[in-house]
């Protein structure tokens, strides 16, 4: 027998024993009801300026309670989800984590997030029902405290709309007509682009149309990514790309920044956090944009979807869950904390009281020309359709990027691409052993 | 008291093992153990119970060969392999051809500014792959590229380099730009090691510089060419950074464009370490078989020629 092979087998055997050793280690957690002495918590997050908000806690309420919080910027969005799951497998997850709404089922399924319903049940009253439902996953448990939401809105270049004689679309039909009218007036310009690299935006648009991608019925999951509502949205955008009425290149690229900054693209369907992105992507257009409600499928309706939005969760590895929940509740509901989050992080708070509070009295600097920005935003936020997320959003999103990327490039219509996302997602769930209803 | 003859013999017999210990420990800890762990992972899988939510919803169990079965029947992986074959078919010949040409030109007697040219050709190799990909990405994007601007100003058609067949050329170009210098240095070094007498003899026999290059220099640096080909093959199998960096700029690079990108996607986006481990093992085996198979074939040929 080959010597190398022998070595490999020996190593494999050795690593097996090592692993067995890992498995028997203590779970940590649960027995932490009686807290005494100073507690220090670690918080993995990416929202800008969170460290400053934690400093307010550490100097004030935290000092009184003997709880110190350290913010660590590890990664953001989906990357952080992966990182936390890995850390959790080694039983080394931080006490607190920032997680987007759509990541919650994945984190819960991987046993990362603790059920904090015992400590945070009362917090429910501070949030809108649709928002709270997303942190309970429709169960009696509570897996996180909502932090911010991302209701979808329509952003447009006020000056260029006037120049080309366009009016702000209130329905998707008008939106399509506006896109065609602009192409006719100046073929080099586009109203916007369909970005295949941003599945979160498409998910939000489907949500507005009434889609519920993941639901549970009895002890089975229902996956409906290619339901009638989502198909309608896919066909709409696919049609616009196919006829060339809008661009088909991805967002968040240097080319996209330039298109926004030079006015080659004159509108953007985005969320309430868009001013922050425009500030860095299109600095020359300050004060030239305006925000309006998202176009509707039926004239007179008032519904929107969401893109992003995040929560603060407590990990199962935390040995100080009570303290962690205390901080998470303060962070997302205390007026001073929320005001600091808005100021330093530019987020749109999820707590209902904060949406009409002093924190949002002033419009974002980039939108100084629209002083009632946040009043309008609060009205729109109230109309957000609830999200319905499942345990493998990551798989659906990457399938989306590949299938829609190809369809957008070939200008081939998006129906089949949506079908691919559905079948890939269901196949992955079945492979992992989730019961899926046919 | 001097050690007894048997003790001395035993020490002498054990000594080689003592010398081997550091190497063996390092090999085991940094090489064999991780490979063994990857193999172990590849035979395991995650199983979900119930709705898969809450505590204890996931457990790890033996998977047997099921991970390998799904890797080998995965058409996306095959497509990825086909894509990098197409990519390698451009990169390897162009890069090695240029490297050989530059090495021969630097070695020619009349070449001036030899040191400067060598450095200039080598310099891109010092640029990190991700930076190189970003740099070229900016040059490829039609609305940002000065090349497109110039073409547009002259009224010439502006090519779309990040889509369709041109994408392969665009990606290959980044690798050629970055890798030619390194390969040139390897070939050039082996050219400098050729004794001058051989050239003298060739010249006395009436060889022109071109004939010397074709008939003397290239055959004598054949081992270096084999080596650089070997390295380039492995680098092609492992292409990851460039397409990963350019992915965000175009719809045409999928998240599983190259086999290694699929491994990354499985492990760190889908969170399925087990199928990622199985795919890695398959890629490693294929790389080993192909690259060492090539080396063996090439060596046996050179040996035949020598005898």
UniProtKB/TrEMBL annotation, chain A:
InterPro entries: Bact_solute-bd_prot1, SBP. Keywords: Cell membrane, Lipoprotein, Membrane, Palmitate, Signal, Sugar transport, Transport. Coiled coil: none annotated. It comes from the Bacteria. PROSITE patterns: PROKAR_LIPOPROTEIN (PS51257). Residues 1-20 form the signal peptide. This is Multiple sugar transport system substrate-binding protein. The lineage of its organism: Bacteria, Bacillati, Actinomycetota, Actinomycetes, Kitasatosporales.
TrEMBL record, chain B:
Residues 79-294 form the ABC transmembrane type-1 domain. One of its GO terms (cellular component) is plasma membrane. Keywords: Cell membrane, Membrane, Sugar transport, Transmembrane, Transmembrane helix, Transport. Its main location: membrane. The chain crosses the membrane at residues 19-40, 84-107, 119-141, 161-182, 221-240, 273-295. It is a multi-pass membrane protein. PROSITE patterns: ABC_TM1. Gene3D superfamilies: MetI-like. Pfam families: BPD_transp_1 (PF00528). One of its GO terms (biological process) is transmembrane transport. It is found in: Cell membrane. InterPro entries: ABC_transporter_permease (IPR051393), MetI-like (IPR000515), MetI-like_sf (IPR035906). The keyword Transmembrane applies. PANTHER family: ABC TRANSPORTER PERMEASE PROTEIN, DIACETYLCHITOBIOSE UPTAKE SYSTEM PERMEASE PROTEIN NGCF. Belongs to the binding-protein-dependent transport system permease family. This is Multiple sugar transport system permease protein.
């Amino acid at each position: 027998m080959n010597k190398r092979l022998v070595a490999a087998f020996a190593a494999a055997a050795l690593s097996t024993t090592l692993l067995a050793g890992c498995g028997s280690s203590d779970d940590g957690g649960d027995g932490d009801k009686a807290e005494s002495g100073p507690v220090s918590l670690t918080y993995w997050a990416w929202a800008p300026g969170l460290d400053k908000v934690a400093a307010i806690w550490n100097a004030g309420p935290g000092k009184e309670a003997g709880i110190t919080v350290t913010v660590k910027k590890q990664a953001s969005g989906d990357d952080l989800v992966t990182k936390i799951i890995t850390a959790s497998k080694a039983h080394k997850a931080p006490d607190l984590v920032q997680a987007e709404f759509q990541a919650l089922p994945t984190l819960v399924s991987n046993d990362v997030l603790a059920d904090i319903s015992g400590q945070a049940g009362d917090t429910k009253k501070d949030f809108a029902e649709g928002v709270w439902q997303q942190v309970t996953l429709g169960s009696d448990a509570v897996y996180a405290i909502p932090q911010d939401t991302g209701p979808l809105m329509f952003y447009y270049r006020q000056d260029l709309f006037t120049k080309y004689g366009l009016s702000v679309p209130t329905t998707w039909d008008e939106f399509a007509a506006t896109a065609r009218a602009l192409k006719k007036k100046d073929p080099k310009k586009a109203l916007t682009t369909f970005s295949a690299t941003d599945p979160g935006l498409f998910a939000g648009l489907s949500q507005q149309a009434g889609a519920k991608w993941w639901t549970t019925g009895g002890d089975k999951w229902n996956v409906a990514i290619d339901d009638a509502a989502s198909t309608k949205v896919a066909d709409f955008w696919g049609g616009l790309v196919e006829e060339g009425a809008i661009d088909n290149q991805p967002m968040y690229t240097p080319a996209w920044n330039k298109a926004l900054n030079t006015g080659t693209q004159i509108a953007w369907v985005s969320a309430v956090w868009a001013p922050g992105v425009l500030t860095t992507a299109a600095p020359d257009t300050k004060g030239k944009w305006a925000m309006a409600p998202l176009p509707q499928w039926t004239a007179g309706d008032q519904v929107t979807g969401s893109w992003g939005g995040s929560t603060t969760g407590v990990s199962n590895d935390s040995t100080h869950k009570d303290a962690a929940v205390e901080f998470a509740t303060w962070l997302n509901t205390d007026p001073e904390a929320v005001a600091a989050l808005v100021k330093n992080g530019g987020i749109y708070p999820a707590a209902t009281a904060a949406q009409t509070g002093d924190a949002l009295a002033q419009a974002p600097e980039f939108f100084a020309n629209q002083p009632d920005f946040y009043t309008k935003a609060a009205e729109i936020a109230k109309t957000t359709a609830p999200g319905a997320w499942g345990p493998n959003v990551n798989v659906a999103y990457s399938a989306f990027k590949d299938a829609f990327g190809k369809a957008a490039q070939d200008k081939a219509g998006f129906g089949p691409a949506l079908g691919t996302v559905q079948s890939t997602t269901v196949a992955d769930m079945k492979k992992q052993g989730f019961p899926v209803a046919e | 008291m001097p050690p007894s003859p048997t003790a001395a013999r035993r020490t002498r017999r054990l000594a080689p093992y003592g010398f081997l210990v550091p190497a063996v420990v390092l090999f085991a800890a940094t090489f064999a153990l991780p490979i063994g762990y990857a193999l172990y992972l590849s035979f395991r899988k995650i199983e979900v119970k119930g709705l898969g939510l809450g505590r204890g919803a996931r457990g790890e169990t033996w998977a047997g060969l099921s991970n390998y079965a799904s890797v080998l029947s995965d058409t996306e992986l095959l497509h990825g392999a086909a894509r990098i074959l197409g990519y390698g078919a451009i990169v390897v010949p162009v890069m090695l051809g240029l490297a050989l040409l530059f090495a021969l030109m630097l070695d020619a007697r009349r070449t001036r500014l030899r040191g400067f040219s060598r450095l200039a050709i080598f310099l891109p190799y010092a640029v990190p792959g991700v930076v190189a990909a970003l740099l070229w990405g900016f040059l490829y994007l039609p609305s940002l590229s000065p090349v497109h601007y110039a073409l547009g100003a002259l009224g010439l058609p502006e090519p779309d380099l990040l889509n369709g067949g041109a994408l392969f050329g665009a990606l290959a170009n980044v690798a050629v730009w970055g890798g030619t210098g390194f390969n040139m240095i390897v070939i050039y070094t082996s050219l400098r090691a050729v004794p001058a007498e051989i050239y003298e003899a060739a010249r006395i026999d009436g060889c022109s510089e071109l004939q010397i290059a074709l008939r003397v220099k290239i055959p004598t640096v054949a081992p270096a060419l084999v080596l650089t080909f070997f390295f380039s093959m492995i680098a092609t199998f492992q292409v990851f950074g460039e397409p990963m960096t350019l992915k965000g700029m175009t719809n045409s690079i999928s998240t599983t464009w190259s086999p290694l990108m699929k491994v990354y996607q499985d492990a760190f986006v889908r969170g399925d370490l087990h199928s990622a481990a199985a795919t890695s093992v398959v890629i490693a085996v294929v790389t080993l078989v192909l690259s060492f198979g090539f080396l063996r074939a090439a060596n046996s040929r050179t040996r035949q020629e020598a005898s």
